[in-house]
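Course assignment 3, question 2. Fill in each field.
Student: A.L.
Task: Predict the tertiary structure for the chain below.
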Amino acid sequence: MEETVLIKAISDMMDEKLEPVKEDIGELKQDVGMLKQDVVELKQDVGMLKQNVGKLEANVGILKENVEELNKKSVKMTGKIDMLQQRISELEFTMEDKISYEIHLIAENHFFLNRQLEYMRNTWRR
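Answer field:
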């Protein structure tokens, strides 16, 4: 019987020593469970981030196309502006030429009128 009591005492002593280990194992199992949940959440987040990156890449592609289109339009507008500036210069030259011609005609008419007035004065005096 003494042997049984001794075995029982050893068993109880081992159970006492193993109890904190069992508690630690229980806590570790809980921690592992929470870590697994965290891993699942992280995988979901990574999946959503990959989708967002895909959308961003598509948007960047669209933006690049829009920038290229704007550059082309800018080149066209620059050409049109140059053409309009040339046309304005031509019109300014034409207007200056016409104004100069009109001034010349007015001066000739003035000279002619002055000669006629002088003639009329001289004729009246006689």
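Instructor remarks: The chain is about 100% helix and 0% strand. The mean pLDDT is 92.
Grade: pending
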